Fold each of these.
Amino acid sequence: MFKFNIVNNDYEITKAPVLNLKEKLLEKGHIIDEKNPEYVFIIGGDGTFLKAVRLYQEKLDLVNFVPFKFGGIGFYTNKNDLKQIDMIIDKLEKNDLFNLTYQLLEVENGPTTHYVVNEIRILNEKKPLYVKVFINDEYLETFHGTGLVVSTSTGSTGYIKSAGGSVVLPKNSGLYQIQELVPVSTNRFRTLNSPIILNDSYYVKLEFETEQEVLICDTHVTEVHGTILNIKVSNKKIKVLSHKDPKSMSEINILREIFIIDKKEVE
């Protein structure tokens, strides 16, 4: 017997599989506990996965996530198949699922610590930001422009890819990257304007000229408290359970399926 909760997307079509999963778990004697679940079942796409992680920010050491893809892009949620729900529940009860982990970024924002799966974005679309960028306390540059994005390796196929960042294949390798967003570039002011890839021996400090800039941690929108953000690879990791052997899941194939169309397929 275990405690569980279900986090799902808001689509009408999702209601039936959510109800089916809930009924199966209750019939087996498991208990719904929204505050302190041992297992969080996720039905949806990657946005739903990010929402679930956000909900349990303070309990990441205690929670195991069991995602099912039922929506859009599913880098995180393509680990289990709803058509095999009975088998997956049975394996879960026998502690016979594969254990996966995902790296997190840890962001110190005044008195608050955010744990980030994909990326953080610091934005000001009304006027250009001035941000001093330090790496391991060594001054790099003063960025002047719309914003900055800092991404995990697993988040490298998300927002930062669209912003010109690199796709980082090694996961849980301690790698993360910083990318500038719409920098001012003139004969009088110029920054690096290139992705910087770091590992977990590096930490980043961002020092802002003004307070209350917009800070987006995955899907959560907040403000920068004060004028300094400290960013590093966290010691915490997300724990995910899958019935699929991770050795059988090709990251190259996932990239091809989601992003790549060969010439012969277009003609």
Amino acid sequence: MDTPTHPQGDADWAFGREHGDRWQRTLTPPTTSRRPTLACTAVGMQPRYLPEGPRTLDHHLALVILSGSGWFSWGGREPIDVVAPVLLRLPPGMEHHYGPHTSDCSECFVGFIGPAVDAHTELGHIGDIVVPLSSAEPVRRAVRKVATVCNESEPHYASSVATGLHEFLTTLRRSRTGTGRHAPTVLERFTEAACLPISVPEHTRRLSLSRDELRDTVGRTAGCSPKEFILATRLNLAKELLANTDLTIAAIARRVGYDDQGYFTRLFTKRVGIPPSSFRERHTRRS
């Protein structure tokens, strides 16, 4: 039986809950006219007490076992043992079934859809079904950040969530065991430099790309221009810092590339829909 979202029943969701260890929310992708190249369908974190499935999904799901151990079966295969931290990649249409071996089993997950999935597969962000990870903590932080930046009422929601999902998939790639041999992709290097006070032409020179090559690379994976990608990356980091630190707004502005706090506040308000101080208040930790 097809299951449209994973999991259902997030009526108790409220911003600020993402700081905890038991929460979930489902999201409605934008309409066709506004659909990004990568859209989030679900995000959450929870303990796992009971088996799940067998079932199939209509979207991609990155499920990470954060602690404990369990078993996993997919595509009619015999169950195998899985030990945290481990990524279970669940593509649409693949029947799967899993459950815990231990009482301390916990998981986090992000669901996503969109034409950029193919581009991320080529980049190596999406690969094997079962992927051992070297550490759970970077993934835990990345999942919480996805929940923090996903707000469907934001004026620039599409680019914000596509950029946030790119960062999440990059974190999964870097968290694989034995990833020291993997060189960063062009888009990862561009993301890392997004908060530097340099222009797009300067970025292209640093990356040894033409402007058209950079535009095509960003467009295929995030569905926006390099300038828009920089703005979304900067403001997503600002959201994370507002939600998780006590840094002043002026310090956060400087951290994300803006020396003028007033300009940063106006830009944040225009693109997010509320000023930084209100965003921080909304994302205060909730029980």
Amino acid sequence: MFFSGKTAKKAQTSQEPTVSLHAVNVSTAPPKVKIKGGMTSAAYLRLQRLSDEDMAHLDAALEELAQHAQALIQGMPVVIELEQSDLSPAGLQDVVNRLRQAGANPFALRAPESQAALAQPLGISYLGELSREHLRRQSPATTSEATRSEQSAESEFKDALIITTPIRSGQQVYARDRDLIVIGNVSRGAEILADGNIHVYGALRGRAMAGLKGNDQARIFCTTMDAELLLINGDYLTQDSVSEAVLHKPCQVVKDDQTIQILVF
């Protein structure tokens, strides 16, 4: 934008120099593209020793999930994990197709590096190998000093994350490498996640996921049980499977041999 003007004449025979002003437009509109970091929860489908001929096992698992948690599976982000699996490219394509037909959204693969090339033709991402925590639990314990030092360092948790306001629908809170304490209600549609334990001093109506980094000993505590989903290190219980005997009561949630149990105080 350009402005020009002249000062008033002092006399008819003299003129002041011309003054030119340039206006700079400074836009305050928000950018049309903005990249932000964040996180969301995803389900992990672990296929152990599964071959192309074993699809009936996958169908049975998806059917059971659909019967108990139809709303949960719709649009659910899924990471496929391959462990000692002999799936061919066509077999993995079959897995992806069955997940999509069930309403889920498989978006990534975790597998040995030798199987990394399976991901790209399917339009999903390769996220690397299975976690060290999982591989350690599957292998014999080692007594080396280096391993004990590593395990000790990984087991060091930070102070608990304390939230003193209610968690509203649509909100997500993650306590990384620590326990989570919520002083207030957790609304339906909200998610609370922690690598350690979860304590809710109020009504738990949303989704609570504890022990996310492989801690089977993690627990979930609440003063009023009405949760949509309870998960400890990959194993979960949906609201449809919760006994009415524990609803609206103070409870703790524990994991015993891959089974989620709810105990009333």
